[in-house]
Amino acid sequence: MRIGLWEAIIHLPVRLGPATKLAGAARSPASWSNTVNQAIGHSTPQSQTGNNMRKYFGMFAAIVVSMWISAASAYFVPHLTPAQQQRYQEMIKTDPSAARAYIDTRNYISICQQALKQLPRILEIGIQPKDFDAKYASPDEVKTVKRAIFLWMKATIAQ
Length: 159
Description:
It contains 7 helices and no strands. The chain is an all-alpha fold.
């Protein structure tokens, strides 16, 4: 008969009988664990390696699945080219506020481009940054951002 862990702890002296030594000094923690496992009907210590392997594999599989699900639902990550990153590094030394506007503009353009490729996720682009500056974007990129914002507004209203 298998019972739960809590029931085993409560009824441990009754299930094991009076012949079992329950004095704390006579038993090591490992032996207590073996006694409890035997009392609730779990396997003996020699065959627990297979059970432990299944347990650890189950935990590993749960972690992998949760990471996969969280990655699938993650927000867009801006992608900057090495040239854009270099320009940002140069601008930060001379004019930090312009550099901040530049990086925010480039990041938002990148996010809008990704969102237009994955239209079901258009609601994730968010509101245009306050320091967005069209002088750091080409005319085509400005059109892309306007289209993404239009679709974002349309999707927000429809929601």
